[in-house]
């Protein structure tokens, strides 16, 4: 094996020859030991790339979720199928950022829509299946819990106990128009004396014998009906479990009208004036009704 030196560069002294020779042998040893060895390089870990995107469903999708749910979907399905067909919509970046701050997880609802595929077992199919297997069948009857009905006497007692003696209602009054003053009659001058005194006494007697015109009741805007009274009675009965079972309808309540009562109209169903009235509450099957006072007050504006 010839040395890799040119003749011009061969040193003349022994020390130089020795240094050159050692350097040549070291390079040859390093080259031989490196043949056939595999050099492992440090590889970077691959970054995790998301394969799904969170979307909001615009309609219920089987095995994914109901309308409005946020579920993860692959990019291809969303791009090619769902978004063109308006099945779902992309979520904006602010919405995704807000959901990440709340640590909200996006998961599919695999059970959604699965109940529709289950076979429904009707009574006819159940009977045929039982007859095939040999199991005796009985008709299924759903029994609803029956509440004990209150007797009319007990209902009247509960109304007497829980309904207050007076029910107050407030309505805005209609301002009354002032009546025009009656023109004064000119009294003829009869002078003085006994004839004048007799004429004055007769005039006073005529004025005293005239009937006194009753004051007109003050009208109100709207009215107080038997339905309003019924609602107040039911609200009072609802404070007790037993009295809440008393069955009343609007026909069971009526205003008692009389010659001295002013303001009751429409066959005892409506009151359109301010004042005190009497109402009768009667239960079907009961002999006598319960009477209560109703006061319609003028609401101060």
UniProtKB/TrEMBL annotation:
<feature type="domain" description="Ribosomal protein L9">
    <location>
        <begin position="54"/>
        <end position="92"/>
    </location>
</feature>
<keyword id="KW-0687">Ribonucleoprotein</keyword>
<protein>
    <recommendedName>
        <fullName>Ribosomal protein L9 domain-containing protein</fullName>
    </recommendedName>
</protein>
<dbReference type="GO" id="GO:1990904">
    <property type="term" value="C:ribonucleoprotein complex"/>
</dbReference>
<keyword id="KW-0689">Ribosomal protein</keyword>
<dbReference type="InterPro" id="IPR036935">
    <property type="entry name" value="Ribosomal_bL9_N_sf"/>
</dbReference>
<dbReference type="Pfam" id="PF01281">
    <property type="entry name" value="Ribosomal_L9_N"/>
</dbReference>
<dbReference type="GO" id="GO:0005840">
    <property type="term" value="C:ribosome"/>
</dbReference>
<comment type="similarity">
    <text>Belongs to the bacterial ribosomal protein bL9 family.</text>
</comment>
<dbReference type="InterPro" id="IPR020070">
    <property type="entry name" value="Ribosomal_bL9_N"/>
</dbReference>
<dbReference type="InterPro" id="IPR009027">
    <property type="entry name" value="Ribosomal_bL9/RNase_H1_N"/>
</dbReference>
């Amino acid at each position: 094996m010839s040395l890799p030196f040119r003749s011009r560069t061969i040193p003349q002294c022994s020390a130089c020859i020795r240094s050159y020779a050692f350097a040549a042998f070291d390079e040859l040893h390093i080259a031989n030991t490196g043949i056939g060895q595999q050099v492992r390089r440090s590889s970077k870990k691959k970054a995790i790339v998301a394969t799904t995107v969170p979307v909001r469903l615009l309609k219920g999708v089987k095995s994914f979720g109901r309308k409005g749910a946020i579920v993860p979907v692959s990019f291809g399905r969303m791009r090619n199928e769902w978004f063109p067909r308006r099945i779902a919509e992309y979520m904006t970046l602010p919405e995704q950022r807000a959901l990440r701050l709340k640590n909200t997880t996006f998961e599919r609802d695999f059970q959604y829509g699965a109940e529709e595929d289950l076979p429904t077992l009707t009574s006819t199919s159940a009977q045929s299946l039982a007859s095939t297997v040999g199991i005796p069948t009985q008709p299924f009857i759903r029994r609803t819990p029956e509440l004990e009905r209150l007797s009319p006497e007990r209902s009247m007692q509960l109304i007497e106990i829980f309904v207050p003696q007076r029910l107050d209602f407030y309505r805005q009054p209609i301002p009354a128009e002032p009546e025009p003053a009656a023109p004064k009659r000119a009294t003829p001058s009869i002078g003085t004396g006994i004839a004048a005194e007799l004429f004055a006494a007769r005039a006073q007697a005529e004025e005293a014998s005239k009937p006194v015109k009753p004051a007109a009741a003050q009208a109100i805007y709207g009215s107080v009906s038997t339905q309003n009274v019924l609602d107040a009675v039911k609200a009072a009965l609802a404070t007790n479990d037993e009295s809440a079972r008393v069955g009343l309808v609007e026909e069971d309540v009526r205003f008692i009208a009389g010659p001295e009562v002013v303001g009751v109209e429409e066959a005892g169903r409506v009151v359109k004036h301010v004042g005190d009235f009497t109402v009768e509450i009667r239960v079907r099957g009961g002999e006598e009704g319960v009477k209560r006072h109703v006061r319609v007050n003028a609401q101060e504006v």
